[in-house]
Structure formats: C-alpha cells, structure tokens
UniProtKB/TrEMBL annotation:
Gene3D superfamilies: Leucine-rich Repeat Variant. Pfam families: Arm (PF00514), DUF7032 (PF23005). ARM repeats lie at residues 182-210. This is Vacuolar protein 8-like. The gene is LOC111433964.
Amino acid sequence: MKVPPENSHFLLSNNLISSVLDDIPLINDFKGKWSSMAAKLSDLRAQLIDVSEFPNSSSNPLSLDFLHSVVETLTQAASLSHKCRNPGVSDGKLKTQSDILSVLTKLDCLLKDGDVLIKSEILHDGVISSSSSRREAVRAESRNLITRLQIGSIESRVLAIDSLLQLLNEDDKNVTIAAAQGAVPVLVRLLDSSSLELKEKAVAAISIVSTVDGVKNVMIAEGIVLLNHLLRILDSGSGFAKEKSCLALQSLSISKQNARSIGSRGGISSLLEICEAGTPGSQASAAAVLRNLASFNEIKENFIEENGVIVLLGLLTSGTPLAQENAIGCLCNLVGDDDNLKLLIVKEGGIEFLKIFWDSVPSVRSLEVAVELLSLLASCSPIAETLISEGFLDRLLPVLSCGVLGARIAAARAVYELSFCAKARKEMGESGFITPLINMLDGKSVDEKTAAAKALSSLLQYNGNRRIFQKEERGIVSAVHLLDPSILNLDKKYPVSLLASVVISSKCRKLMAAAGAASYLQKLVEMNVEGSKKLLVSLSRAKIWGVFARS
C-alpha cells in the first residue's frame, strides 16, 4: 500500500487491517460474520489506496476526518478480533455478537463515506488562493459541503447543512453553483434522515432552490420522490417545515402531472388544514400552492369535496396580505364559468371580504387578483348588480389609469362584465370610464388594447356614452389602428363594434376615413370578421371614396 510518510493514519490503518485479517482464520466462533468482515476490510484497504493517491489526501479536512474514523473503527475491530482469538478474555457470545455487528455496520458506513469522498472530486481541489475567482471558491465550497452532507455523524452533517444554508442565502448565484454540483439529490435523500433537525434544514435548503428560476428544473427532475417527502411533511412536520415544504411545492405544483399527484395523495386536504390553522407564513405558502392547483380543471372537484371555497374565504378575514392575495387568486382559478361557485362566494360573504381586501391592499400590484375576481363574479348578472350597488365602480375607475399593466387589463375586463345593462353603462359613462379606456387603446400590450376595445364596445351601446366618445377624436383614430390585420392576436370584432356604434356621425366617418379605415376593413371582410362588412358598407354610403383612394 502506498503510504504518504507525512500522514500516519494511512500507515496505522494498513497495520490494523493486516492485524485483523491475520486474526480471522484463528477465530472459531461466528465464522460467517468474520468472513463478511474480512471482505469489508479488503474493500476498505483498496479504498484507502485510492484515497492515498490523491495529492491532497493528507491535508484535506474531510479526508483527515474520514481517516480518523477509519482508525477508530479498525482499532475497535482489532481489539475484538484479539478477544475472539483468545476465548479466555471473551465477553460472552451475546455481547461478542453484538460487538461484531456494530463493527460491521461501521465498516459499511465507512465504505459508503469513502466512496462518496472519492467520487465527490473534493480531493482534487487545492487551496483556494486569494487570486482565485469567487465562482471557483463557491464551487469548491459547495462540493465540500455536499460531500460532508453524505458522510460522518448526524452532528457533522447538521454543521454542514448550516454552512450550506448560509451559502445559499447569500446569493442566487450560489444556489445555481451548488445545484450544478449536485446539491439537490443529496438534499432530497436527507429528507429520509432519522434526525428531525437535519430533515427540517434539508427542506429549508430545498425551498431556497425552488425560488431560483434557473435551477427549478433540477428540483422538478426529482419528481415523485421529492413530492412524497414534501407531502408527508405537510401532514406531520413542524410549522417551520410545513412552510418550507409549501414553498417548494409552489414550483412543483405548476406541473399538471404533479398537480394530479398532489390531489390524489390528499395534498389539498393538508394544504387547506394549513390555511385554517397554520402559521401566517405557512398559510400564505399553502394558499399559493392551492392557487396553482386550482388552475387544473380535473383538480377542482377535490376543492369542492374539501369545502375549499369556505376555507379560502376564511383566510380573507384572518390571513396576511400575501395569504389573502393567494386565496383570492385561488378563488379566481376555481370559479371560472361556474355560476354556482360564484353564488356560493357571494352567499358566504365574499363581496364584503373583497371590499375589505381592496380597501386595505398594500399595493396596486396586489390588487390585480381582486379585480380579476370582481370581473369573474360580475359575469353573473345578478351578482353584477350587487357589486355596483356595493360601490365597486368607484373602486374600479382609478385602476384603469394605474401603472400596473395586469391590473389595468383586469379592470377593463371587469368594466365589460359590469356593463350588462343600460343603467350600468350610463352610470359608468357619467363616472368617467370612457377616457381612461380610450387611453388604453394606445397601450403597448395587445391584451390591453383588446380589453379596452371590448369594454368600450359595450359601453357605447348607450347613446350618452357615444357622445362622450365622439368628443375624443384620438379614440376614433386609435380604434381604426386596431383594425390593422398586422396586429396579431387582437379580436377585430371589438374595434369594429365600437366604430360601428359611432359611424352614424359624419365627423366620425371623416376621422375613420382619414385614418385608413376602408383599406383595413376590406381586408377584414376577406377574413370574415364579424361586423366588418356592415361597417364598410356604412362608410361607402357616405360617398367618401376619394378619401379612401388617398389612404
């Protein structure tokens, strides 16, 4: 065996192995177990030769710790073989058998640790100099910590995961580097640990990885194994562990396959229980997972069976702002076109809860889901009437001019749903809804343009609103530009409809003609866009073909 002179551990280990192997043929009791030990000792000797061939084996801290454990176990084995070779000093068969099994177990752990040490490549790592890049330093530290998580005692692994958590919390780049070094599979295996502390810290580390977009796929690749661990934690873990498990599940639950697995394994029931009685942080995270799950139609039945709507509404009265936002988002995904669920929400006080959230929301960005829920509820006419009487028009108007695109789009969609009758259209027109919707026609997003055109096409069915719209000349021009077939993914029937509502005005017809409406409409007629032919005929009868030719 190659023995570096500067490290006595290698020499001592080799001598101890030789001593035990010499004793074994002379031992008469438990021959099968001693034969098994001989095989393990031979494997360990070969492994030590491999370790000794690394240039840093005599200085690497992990290598030294490993060698210290080897010497400790081999010393115990040598003492035991000496006793068994001399029955006069034996401690009795039961005690001896127990001691042999203990040594065999320790040898198994050492062989496993040695294999991890050799494969980890940390013995290739030299001392990181001050001139080395930070990335290289983090990479080497990650390899070191990941190896330490797999070898040694529970206490040493807890120390290693504490250091890993500190590294991961410093920077998202550190998370990416650690994941590239194989941290995630190792952390997942730690979720099987008998140590509650190690298990909780492992799920905390996994939750950090789950928040970094570039490495989420590494976690998702762990599939059903990780999913089952996280779901078990939801049932029996501490409040801290449940919160971290929910954070990790947020990334996993965006997959349809994982969503099905969560639903079939009782995950929705566990998540709803956390929403009812968990810590504030775990409630917000659980609601976020439920929000993802509710977007899959086949999972919705699970929510109904577990009275999910009632639980989510309860969270609106007691949860943190983030928990409330996620609960509303979940309700949005649940209700869809289901009028029965919408009526249930109203019956259980949902409108009042929505008002309270709306009036206390910390930012307009958080308001987006509330506006979306308003729009969904308003699509049911009896509810729309109640919403108007509860003062939601005054709440909705300023959102049309806010700086958050998603909130503006949701608000315009809500306007369309709320304008279900002449009385509602009249009230919105007199309240000032027309001008901000005209502004949205010039938005950069196609979704914003579409939502605004759709809302205006409904509002302009009321004659008084048409007069307001006609005063805004830029509204005509902006609507005509939306007819352009080169603007993709925009439903042309809405700008066609709103222009048709004002085409009777000669002033509006001239503005349409000057903006090039005829050429656009001719193309839309060929595309069979609803209402385009009728609008083109209306313009033709005005006998302004000369203007059309110039456009």
